[in-house]
Structure formats: structure tokens, C-alpha cells
């Protein structure tokens, strides 16, 4: 396991769920990893668990200064940056257009887009120069909601669709020096929270979804763990295994595209 030997990655939201699973696998593959994470306890846990291979920095992806500080800390400690992984995001717990007030949608839009879209843009901006120098890559975590309705409400679905545009435009702008791609997972057991502006900051995705309900809508019919999604990240980050992919979306969604998301609540009850 040394497909990423010598490489340095920076992951946002690396303290939990999918980001933590990617971190563990990247370290096992020989990489050193920086993390930008807003939860102070998770930052302390990572720095204690991985004193040599990981450097976790506390901060918020909505702030360009925090993104820049994380990149500077990684360069100071590890000397280079090969891969930026935009991953920190929040959900909307399926908040619907008709079920929420106009003011809630206004606030919810600003919060979801600030974290899920602006956070990725600002992280890419902070990392761009170092990635151009290393001829590295960017990987964004999107979602089945980047392609299909029914995996959230209009706020989350629109924010993940916006990520598709970000990948395409950055892949266009940063070629030929930097490859830009995305992984779009399906549901999994994580700590994914809702929007504070919608009163959902303490609500986890698995509080309102069951493993049975998720596996029932997935053609492959099982409930994935975060670890089940990390293989595509290793492949996209690896220089040996990925010389050719840029502007590509890996739909790691247990086959959802075969028939879309069926049999979940969310339509108008007429
Ligand atoms: N859980 C799912 O079912 C699912 C499905 C598809 C896609 N995803 C995507 O996977 C990615 C990772 O989410 P997860 O499910 O592992 O959730 P998670 O909550 O377990 O992990 C996200 C991490 O990001 C951090 N974070 C959140 N907002 C932040 C901010 N503003 N600044 C810095 N750090 C912040 C959190 O503290 C947390 O440690 C997200 O992009 C999410 O949209 C998740």
C-alpha cells in the first residue's frame, strides 16, 4: 500500500465521516495529510493520533483566510502540496420549497452555498499555486444530489449541482498543470449535519434516514460505510493511475443512475 508515497494532500472536513476515511487510507498509502476542520475536538484528536503524518488546522471553509492558513501550514510542515480535497459540507435534511418560509430558504441558501460551494472555491483558490507547481490535482466530494433530485431538498441539491460546474470550469482553467475531478457518493453512515439557519445543526443525517431506507433505494442493495468510497480518491490522486482524467465525475453511488431515486418522500401530497 504505497500508491501515494511522497504525496501531500489537504482535506477539508477531515475530522469525521468520509473525510476521515479518506485521511486514514491516504496515510496508509504513504501520503502525509493536512486537514482544515471546524471542530476543535476533532482537530486535537487527529494531531494526537497522527503526530507525524497529519497536520490538522482549526478553521472554517467559508473563510479564505482560514483556507490560506491551512495551505501555508501544510507547505511549512511538509514542503509541498499534491492534492486538495474539498469535502466539508452540510445537508438540508430534505427541507422542501413549500415546507419552509421564504426567510428560512433565504438563510438556508446562504449557509449551504457558503459551505458547500464557496468553501470548495476558496479552498481551490488557496491551494492553486502550490498545485500548479507540483502538477497536482483537485478532488471535490459531490453527491448523488449533484445529478438526481430526491437526495435532499432544493438547497442541498442545487449546491451539489453547482459543484459540477466548479469541477468543469476549474478543470478547464487549470489544465494542463492541475487535474480537477469529483467523486459523487451515495448515502452512508456519517455525522453529516444540517444547516444551523434551519435549526438543524445538531441533527445528523442518520437521525432521519435508516440504513434500510438507504439500501432499499440503491440498486446494489447495501448500506455503504465511508470506507467504501475511498478507492476512487486514491485512484484520482495517484499520478501513476491517473494521467488522463480531468473534469470527470465518478458516481460512486451503488448504481443510483440506473433508475434514479425512487420511493422516498418529497413530492407534493395532492
Ligand atoms: N453522509 C452522506 O450520506 C453523504 C452522501 C453523499 C455525499 N456526502 C458528502 O460527503 C462529504 C463529507 O460529509 P460526511 O457525510 O462525511 O459528513 P461529516 O459531518 O461526518 O463530516 C464533515 C466534516 O466537515 C466538517 N465541517 C462542516 N462544516 C465545516 C466548515 N464550515 N468548515 C470546516 N469544517 C466543516 C465537520 O465538522 C465534519 O468533521 C460532504 O461533501 C457530503 O455532502 C455525504
UniProtKB/TrEMBL annotation:
PROSITE patterns: ADH_SHORT. Belongs to the short-chain dehydrogenases/reductases (SDR) family. It comes from the Bacteria. It comes from Novosphingobium humi. This is 3-(Cis-5,6-dihydroxycyclohexa-1, 3-dien-1-yl)propanoate dehydrogenase. InterPro entries: NAD(P)-bd_dom_sf, Sc_DH/Rdtase_CS, SDR_fam. Its EC number is 1.3.1.87. The keyword Oxidoreductase applies. The gene is hcaB.
